[in-house]
Amino acid sequence: MLDYRLDEETEALRKVVREFSQDVIAPQIGAFYEADEFPTAIVRQMGELGLFGLPFPEEYGGSGGTYFTLCVALEELARVDSSVAITLEAGVSLGAMPIYRFGTEEQKQQWLPRLCAGEALGAFGLTEPGGGSDAGSTRTTARLEDGHWVVNGSKAFITNSGTDITGLVTVTAVTGERPDGKKEISAIMVPAGTPGFTVGKKYSKVGWNASDTRELFFDDCRVPAGNLLGERGRGFSQFLSILGEGRIAISALAVGLAQGCVDESVKYAALREAFGQPIGRNQAIQFMIADMEVRASTARLAYYRAAERMLRGEPYGREASIAKLYSSEVAVDNARYATQVHGGYGYMNESAVGRFYRDAKILEIGEGTSEVQRMLIARDLGVG
Q1: Are 360 and 273 members of one domain?
Q2: In total, how many domains does the chain have?
Q3: pLDDT digits (tens, 9 = 90+) for 264-291
Q4: For residue range 45-67, what is the model confidence (pLDDT) as tens digits?
Q5: Annotated active-site positions, please?
Q6: pTM for this structure?
């Protein structure tokens, strides 16, 4: 019989992250959000809790957990705020995980202890201006010259790339031409502060206002040849596998936002009175909240299933796309419903559901749009 109950250790972690989210993040995140300010102190506290090291071995400063434990933590963070949740997701899945999966032992020893401790953040430079979902259209280039890679080009919409604690950005770049005439794309690590590496201003975004997202520029940026991450010419395929894992993590984050909408709506329905009674006594409100809970619970099962297959070493691409597609759309629906339950108060930026409403939409876009997920699912089914 299937058993989706969390084991004692994971349940204990969930409770710790839940308490941290409610006691530390919730009281102050609204001010950071309004100011478009990155909450460095909160992120450092997340590092002290060991959240950035959850899926990594203890020998590299990690907690010795699994990718699923990371997902559980992401869900609990996103029940309160998605900006800090995406900071963790990107820092682990996109920043540190490529080094762990594909790096040399020297690269792991150099970077992972700091990344696992939250003392430094890693970023993932794949998307380019005008590229969007067509990540294979990479125009950034890197050429070998006197034992160094010389990088030229730009990247767009890169999370964690310009904070006070950003340590490095791993970028994909064209390093030559394959025998079949296609681009040879490799991954190269560029430490923060490297001459020729310029970080643009923070984007003015609709949501995720307390997270860091920027455009990056490389102008004859020189890094040692040893900063190549993984095999030369395998950069694009390496990062596609990283994105496959990341879709499960984004699904967990989306489930957290969807569940947060339920949490806030249940509380508000009991407190808000209209026409002489709490609005929760109205069947229309009851049904909206019930539907929100159904969606959040079902989406949770979807990411649990994808994570289960990944941890078993079984193919999980279809399940990851299903989880990411469904949970992101559920997050958007629940944010809309929660705003309706809260009425005018739900449209205020100071309210949690106001932030949920603004944060939800990007989940249908980032790390593979809903259309891309449908394409991948259909392709895996043998359609088209």
Answers
A1: yes
A2: 3
A3: 999 999 999 888 899 899 999 999 999 9
A4: 999 999 999 999 999 999 999 99
A5: 367
A6: 0.95
